[in-house]
Specification:
Layout lengths: L3 E4 L7 H12 L5 E5 L10 E3 L6 H4 L4 E5 L16 H16 L5 E4 L4 H8 L6 H9 L5 E6 L2 E5 L9 H4 L2 H19 L5 E5 L14 H15 L3 E6 L7 H4 L4 E4 L2 H11 L5 E5 L5 E4 L16 H17 L1
Parallel strand pairs: 1-2, 1-5, 2-4, 3-4, 5-12, 7-10, 8-9, 8-10
Antiparallel strand pairs: 6-7, 6-11, 11-12
Helix pairs in contact: 1-11, 3-4, 3-5, 7-8
């Protein structure tokens, strides 16, 4: 069994701590491999330097396998050091290369601080997702959040709400639905995915009384894709899509903007949500939270989302065969 590789993320955040906690929880279940500076791991961590992924399976039950990289300066929990930025980026790039080469089952990325990466290394990407797409040479990828009993995909992501109607084009919606549909089959083993699609406006526009995006943008795309055989419902009023009975009727909810998708999943499974990038040629997951500087180094970090992200990466890799 190939390991899931973990890129270290921001050393001053909780990334090193949750990586070690996840290893402790999973070491008898699956092989892992961490890329980073072992000096940044919590004191007393049982770790062992390895030369490559092939050594991880034998080492994992006894120690955290580490591709050791010298970051030059210590970790100060809660205080990002821009000097670490180039090595943090290198860890992501190295993990992605291992995943794309098939040497590991997938890549799980610990949280980063985009401002620190920009300050220390001129990082020009909004986040992991866009950087990994560039590394893989993929023009369009999709962000999914997966939790216990719910998967959601926002069509538009990190833009002001005022810009959503103009950004929501038929082309963007169709690309998102096609990538999501293909990923559910390939990565989640669903031969006929059921996709629920929200409207943009209250009550899904209520036949044009509360907006026209449903009739002008969303419905024509859904009708065209249904004619190709995709199982799509909608556009649905977002306020009735997420109660238990509704969630049982679909495999993923595709929503029109960030909070429309993320509020439900963070309500249903706040601690265990996983960020998944769909459309890459390799598996990539991440815990659905940030660096948590306020609790870094205190021993209070919750590794639930990291554990779920590692398990999901292994499951997706297995689905891909």
């Amino acid at each position: 069994m190939k390991p899931v590789v973990i890129s270290c993320g921001e050393p001053a955040g909780i990334g090193p701590e949750i990586a070690v906690s996840a290893w402790a929880a999973l070491r008898q279940e699956m092989p892992l491999l961490w890329i980073g500076d072992p000096a940044h791991l919590p004191e007393g961590t049982p770790w062992r330097a390895v030369e490559g992924p092939g050594e991880a399976a034998a080492v994992t039950p006894e120690a955290l396998p580490v591709l050791a990289r010298d970051f030059g300066t210590p970790r100060r929990p809660g205080h990002a050091d821009p000097a670490h930025a180039p090595k943090v980026i290198d860890a992501i790039r190295e993990g992605a290369a291992l995943a794309q080469a098939g040497e590991v089952a997938g890549l799980c990325t610990a949280p980063i601080n985009k401002a620190a990466l920009k300050a220390g290394a001129g990082f020009g990407f909004p986040g992991h997702t866009e950087y990994l797409a560039a590394l893989a040479g993929v023009e369009r990828v999709v962000m999914m959040l997966a939790g216990e009993g719910l998967r959601v995909v926002p069509v538009t992501i990190h833009i002001p709400l005022s810009e959503v109607p103009g950004t929501l084009t038929p082309e963007l919606l169709e690309e998102t639905l096609r990538i999501t549909h293909a990923a559910l089959m390939r990565d989640f083993g669903l031969p006929a995915p059921r996709i629920a699609v929200s409207g943009l406006n209250p009550h899904a526009g209520e036949e044009g009384q509360m907006g026209h995006e449903e009739t002008l943008v969303i419905t024509p795309v859904l009708e065209r894709l249904r004619a190709e055989g995709l199982t799509l419902t909608g556009p649905l009023p977002a306020d009735t899509m997420f109660h238990p009975a509704a969630r049982a009727r679909y495999d993923v909810a595709v929503c029109m903007y960030h909070d429309q998708a993320l509020v439900p999943i963070k309500t249903v499974d706040f601690a265990g949500g996983v960020n998944v990038t769909l459309g890459l040629p390799f598996v990539r997951t991440s815990p659905d939270h940030g660096t948590a500087y306020d609790i870094a180094g205190t021993g209070r970090a919750d590794a639930t989302s990291m554990i779920a992200a590692l398990r999901l990466a292994a499951t997706m890799a297995e689905a891909r065969g």
